[in-house]
Amino acid sequence: MHIKEEIDTPLPHHVGKITSSVRNSNAKYIIEGEYANTIFKVEETSGDVYAFERLDREKKAEYELTALIIDRTNNRSLERPSKFIIKVYDINDNAPVFVQKVFNGSVPEMSPVGTSVTKVTAVDADDPTVSGHATVTYEVTTGGEYFTIDDSGVIYTKEPNLDRETKSTYEIVVQAKDAPGFSGDSSTATVIITLSDINDNFPVFKHTSFHFKVPENISVGGEVGRVKVEDIDEPQHRNTRYSFIQGEFRDTFDIEANPYTNEGIIRPKKPLDFETVSEYKFSIEATDPTVNLRHFKPGNPRSISTVTIEVTDVDEPPVFTKLPYEFKVRENHAEVKTLGSVHAEDPDAAKRKIRYIQRRASPSGDYVRVSNSGVIQLPKPLDREFSSSYNITVAAVEILEDGRLSDRESHAHVHVIVDDVNDNAPELVSPEEPRVCENAAPGKVIVRISAVDKDETSPRGFFRYSLATEDSNFSLIENYDNTANITVRYGQFNRELAKFHYLPVLISDNGDPDLTSTNTLVISVCKCNEKGDFTFCEERAKQVGVSIQALVAIFICIFTIIVIVLLILLRKRHKKDLSGLGRNVAEIHEQLVTYDEEGGGEMDTTSYDVSVLNSVRKNGLKAEAAPCPYAQVQKPPGNITPGAGGMEMMIEVKKDEADNDRDLLPYDTLHIYGYEGAESIAESLSSLGSGSSDSDIDYDFLNDWGPRFKMLAELYGSEPSEDFVY
To answer: Name one GO cellular component term (predicted).
Structure first.
């Protein structure tokens, strides 16, 4: 079945009729399937099918249904079910529509006519199988003077001289509509076309002249200034090249383009000197060799400008006339005191005087000097074996008008080469301990020896080896390659006679003059087996030495320790003397007798005068008040009776001191007691009354102890005389 999509058709709309080969008055028509009994319905008795809604092919183009014929009375099927399709015919009821409202395109500027820009697309929903229903035609409605479009939607350029620098963006309107003769419905879209840049413009200087000021001490390669040009092309198409075309000293400067800013940077290629040239003038040219000449616009492809560079004066450091400086001297040449001199000048107009100062030295030390006037001096002969060359850095400093040194200085490197003199004899290179078997056969090689020389190797030949004496069991054979072999001469060594042989070897060089050294080679005699392998060798005692520097360090340490110990002892003695001087009579308190020696025996009689004690007792004083022979004697007070005894004067002095000294503790120093508490259990503690005590101890045995205990024996061994009190 077929049906056209209708817009204003009245409903229901007859679609078709179901037919049957069965003739039965009770036949009933039924349809089943998609949209059955909703959009499509069938008349039960006649089989006519009707559409109860308007159909739109663009929504659904086909409907599949199933037709059934049954007996109305018992609902039994009279025929097999049959499927049928209802197709909706297109009536071209849709206008074409663009897939997007805005399109973008790009084309290089100055492109020829017919250059493709972009493509637009519009879609018609009608059936494309029906001729003319889905055909779309395009037209540029706005901007048609610059661009055109074909039936496929491709936009082309229509104008050959589209200049980006004049107008960079175009906005056109494109219309899509049905083929001619149909409904004529249409739609529009906007197309934004951008002109991409090409290099079609030459750079032009912004100014006709440029002026720069630069100090004369600008470094080579430093920036003097920048010249600017204007290039209306995009940055990626700006390839300005700068060059000098007129003016002197063009070889003094260089100009290069900055790839990011397109500016020309002027840099000096050599040092500038205000005193020589104070101003530079020249012309420069700017051009672009990559410009597309096919699209080149009328105008001058070259832009020219004038550059003036003014050099300003600055206080420059001195300039050395020669760099570097190199001198040669023979080693150990005592007569050579000066090697030459360095010289620098003030490049400024002031022409100040120059002072020379040594800044660095290698090797470090006072080997090479420079005077204030620049003379290179040798304070002592140089030794090539210590260093074959000496280097110093000399600074040249200007002397200002007030005598001070300028803070600006320049440096020169001075290299001193020391020529070699043959002043060192060759030395034996110590080999491993050479050993020989007792039963070694004649001609047996014991060891190969070699030598070294601190001096430069002579080009005239090798070292010469020889034995200091031929009276030995060894021979020396030269190999003529700076080595020699020590061999056995007679053989049959006896370890009982000598376990070690000391072989003096003479080694001479070929210098001028030639020098010879004597070196001792110690050869051990060992026991060997039948195969000649060493089985037993004596170990030679090795010398243990201490260097002079180590000895000096040890002596300095010992001397330092001795000085520290002496200082400590002197300090202790000084403190002891001060403490002894601090003792006065007031600190002694009740002591009447001071003994400097303990246990003096009979010699103690010199420490005090017994007659003084006796006279004091007769005057009514106690014996303990005997004066100290070492007590400080002061002038007696005026209340002492003339002719009084020494003890009385002592007591009066002590009494006067106690009365006038307010710093003493409040205890009585005038009375000396022989009994420390008569009513106490201990009773008398005084030693002066010990001789008359009631003790049962017999002290006569002291007489047997010798003369040193004679005094104690007299004091304690017998009753004292009535005339003395101890």
So the answer is: bicellular tight junction
686 φ, ψ (degrees, to nearest 5)? -75, 140
Neighbours of 246 (CB within 10 A): 12
Residue range 168-176: mean pLDDT, rounded: 92
The pLDDT score that the predictor gives to residue 90 is: 65
Instruction: Tell me the C-alpha to C-alpha distance, in Å, between residue 604 and each of 193, 387, 686.
Output: 139, 81, 19
Per DSSP, what are the bridge partners of residue 325?
414
Name the phi and psi angles at 14, rounded to 5.
-70, 130
Provide, rounded to the nearest whole percent, the portion of the chain with pLDDT above 70.
Answer: 77
Long-range contacts of 494-501 (CB under 8 A, 24+ apart): 494/438, 494/525, 495/438, 495/525, 495/526, 495/527, 498/525, 499/524, 499/525, 499/538, 500/524, 500/525, 500/538, 500/540, 501/472, 501/473, 501/474, 501/525
At 478-511, the pLDDT tens digits run 888 888 998 988 888 888 888 888 889 998 887 7
The SS3 assignment for 436 reads: strand
Q: In terms of C-beta density within 10 A (0-12 exposed, 13-18 middle, 19 or more buried), how is residue 394 classed? A: buried
Query: Which tokens is 15 given?
Result: 């679609």
DSSP 258-314: -TTT-PEEEEESS---TTT-SEEEEEEEEE-TT--GGGPPSS-S-EEEEEEEEEEP-
How far is Cα 119 from Cα 106, in angstroms, rounded to an integer?
11
Using CA atoms, how far apart are residues 354 and 394, in angstroms rounded to an integer? 12
Q: Which helix (H) or strand (E) holds 27?
A: strand 27-33
Phi, psi of 377 (to 5 degrees): -120, 155
Q: Which of 124-128, 292-296, 532-536, 636-640 has the highest mean pLDDT?
A: 532-536
| CB neighbours of residue 70 within 10 Å | 18
Tell me which residue of 509, 465, 508, 507 sits closest to 487, measured CA to CA: 465
Say which DSSP state 444 is in: -
Check pLDDT > 60 for residue 640: no
- The answer to whether 275 and 348 have CB atoms below 8 angstroms apart is yes
The CA-based diameter of the chain, rounded to the nearest angstrom, is: 197
Range among 129-133, 530-534, 605-609 with highest mean pLDDT value: 530-534
Q: How many CA atoms lie within 13 A of 613 on its CB side?
A: 18
Which residue stretches of 298-446 are H helix? none
Please, are residues 149 and 138 in contact by the beta-carbon 8 Å criterion?
yes
- Write the pLDDT tens digit of every residue in 88-119: 766 766 778 898 999 999 999 888 899 999 99
Give the torsion through C-alpha atoms of 595, 599, 605, 607, to 10 deg.
-10
Fill in the DSSP letter of residue 192.
E
DSSP string covering 508-544: E---SS--EEEEEEEEEEEEE-TTS-EEE-PPPPPP-
End-to-end CA distance of the chain: 173
Are 197 and 106 in contact by the 8 Å Cβ rule? The answer is no
Chain CA centroid to CA 228, Å: 42
149 CB burial (10 A radius; 0-12, 13-18, 19+)? buried
